[in-house]
Amino acid sequence: MEHFLHYLTLGYLLQGILFTLQITVYGLIGGTIIGVLLATMQLSRFRLLAGISRGYAVIFRGTPLILQLVFVYDALPYIGLKFSAVAAGAIALSLNEAPFISEIIRSGILSINRGQIVAGQALGMIPHVITRKIVFPQAIRTMIPAFGSESVSALKNSSLASFISVQELTLRSTQLASSTFDFFSIFIASGVMYLALTGIITALQLVFERFLDFDFKNNHKIKKIDAILTSLPARQKEKISDADMVSTEASDEILIDIKDLHKSYGKTPVLKGLNLRVKKGQIVALLGPSGSGKSTLLRCINGLDQYDGGSITIGGDLIGKTLAGTFLLEKEAARQRIKNKIGMVFQNFNLFQHINAIENVAMPLIWTYGETTPAAYQHAFGLLKRVGLENRYGALPGQMSGGQQQRVAIARTLATRPQLLLLDEPTSALDPELVGEVLEIIRDLAQVDGLTMIISTHQIRFAEQVADYCVFLDGGVVVEEGAAKVVINQPQNPRTQRFLSLMEQSK
What we know:
Elements: H1 2-8, H2 11-43, H3 47-62, H4 65-75, H5 85-110, H6 114-122, H7 127-157, H8 169-180, H9 183-212, H10 214-231, H11 234-238, E1 254-265, E2 268-279, E3 283-287, H12 294-301, E4 309-314, E5 317-318, H13 330-340, E6 342-345, H14 357-369, H15 373-386, H16 402-414, E7 420-424, H17 432-449, E8 452-456, H18 460-466, E9 469-474, E10 477-483, H19 484-489, H20 494-505
Parallel strand pairs: 3-8, 3-9, 6-7, 7-8
Antiparallel strand pairs: 1-2, 1-4, 4-5, 9-10
Helix pairs in contact: 1-9, 2-3, 2-5, 2-7, 2-8, 3-5, 4-5, 5-7, 6-7, 7-9, 8-9, 14-15, 14-16, 15-16, 16-17
């Protein structure tokens, strides 16, 4: 025990720890930089870049670190690249760690539900805002445990640098044991030192996990939000001003004009020459069997999907394409959605999972529309009050029912003050007992706000009550259209009759 304690505090071994930490830290920093580049390349739409990234991973994951160390230290000098032992060790460890860190980053990004990204696009966010505000905060939370494990692995792998004469802890332990022949005490002391270092990494990992925990962060954010809301006069906090509502009384003015629209997914055609006109202030119910193209049509109208042929214009502006016929870049498409005031509510809610209800409504206004924090929270609270969720403003999406989440999603879309509201099967993901509360909100929007709305739904009686126009899709084309009550109660086309009959029977 006396020898063990002596070696545990021996300066010669402690100096070895410094070299070990040097190589580990440099290796992780370099590996992270290269790993980010590799992950970006692999997630790229360009196959060549993705192929290069995968090729790199095959080479450096498939060869031993010792071989890579020897190559950097002994082989590169033949072409004029000579490094010190520490530098060579750090470079080799960086190159070795990069593909593993790349996979950690890639898996973290892929773990984010695609629906949240689409929701960000629909709210007018440009790509780098979506990455910084939606993807990264959630992805980093899933990366931390894996990155902590990889850091421990890198620390242990740094001992292999002894093969190129880096005076790290393992090499110094070996040298000391060779001169004293006290192998047991020295290597036990060395092992304890490694355990202490890995223990520190584990402790840091737990701290980061705690700090990034959504519930932990939310508890602190609620206090700040309470302070903002408390500072607002009660009448401001609870009122939605007339400016927040876009009144567009029904008229004969054509807002949406769709001509000969074609859209295929791969070799499967979905829309086959669809034609449709929607008047300003009109409420259109979009009916049809699953696979008839309802969701695809809405996504094309919002510029979320590129269409293959035909045209879509909103207020005279061509959607999704330039006048020359080229597709818009996502950044340009985002600006177009803002300009044309297009809002969209999705069937799976697509709330941002890392922020609470009022933030889901307010933050897009701050990130994209440049509103001040107090103004955004004031507007958001008023909308949550309108949908009956003012008492749940601090709840995270995972703490709310499906019906509550959909009401938050509606409030979030209304916050952008749309002139056109697209609703894609807004109740299909809800339990039957929750459908009514969401339909009541939509009914209120139709009666009070006077928005132009296109609602894809299987709720036939709701469509009859709310919509003034009905469009029946089947096989990617408009089969029948007209006044909602007429189409629903007196359908003329056999396909419409059969569909409505089946829907009535399924009740």
